[in-house]
Amino acid sequence: MKNVLFVDCCIRREASNTRKLAKAFLSALPSDCAVTRLDLMAEDLSYFKDSYFDQREALLAENRRDHPRFRYAHQFAQADRIVIAAPFWDLSFPALLKVYIEQVSVDGITFGSTEEGLKGLCRASHMIFLTTRGGFYTGDAMEMGSRYLDALHTFFGIGKYTCIAADGMNVAGFDAEASLCRAMQEAGLSERHARALLRLGDAAQRQAALRTVLQQRMSVAETEGYVETLLRPPERRELGALLSEVRRLLDAGACTDAEESAGPGGLSVTLFFPANNTFP
To answer: Between the chain's N and C termini, which has fewer beta carbons within 10 Å?
Structure first.
């Protein structure tokens, strides 16, 4: 089983477009991947200053790298794959992610010092950065977030780096949904799959539907039909399930006929079974 570390820096949480992209990517991972989510918003991360910085220096001087404050570095170094999700802020990413990176950058854990220079010590074979941007910055020299992480993966000794980004999310007149769909497609879904799933407004429902689509390997048509079913009112969904079961009984020969009738109390369904049928 491969250990995937998911570093979640989606500040807006469920309202975040980057979070939507991350969920699509994680749901498309192979079944041999076990994901550990690190929610940076829920962690008590501190800047390096004053006594907090002095403590770190003292621990390293005493070679006490088993101290709890180095837990982030050990977790990062031992992951088989690292997925980082963060929005594009101020030409880079939120400061919270930089604070986390400073926590994992530990000499003797994620990198080492040799006579030839610094050498990465991380196990991961691949670092993936997932991001969404308000403007168009892919390939732009002003974009600093992905470029920084690209350099960092080399510093940590991680074999491969990939950035999956959706641009133009806040540009007036631009089809932001199409941009997000293209990024989701790169993350593991087709564009039409993504468009169908984005019709579901509730994030939890969309995530559950995404898992179902991937697990059952649904075609685009099947996904669109599945989403259409989820968008119906609950009572319509229950009626649809009931009628599907009636059709199954008819096809199997378990009952000979079925009649529907509408009355003041609602819809009635009468099933006719063979006379020689016995019930427990």
So the answer is: C
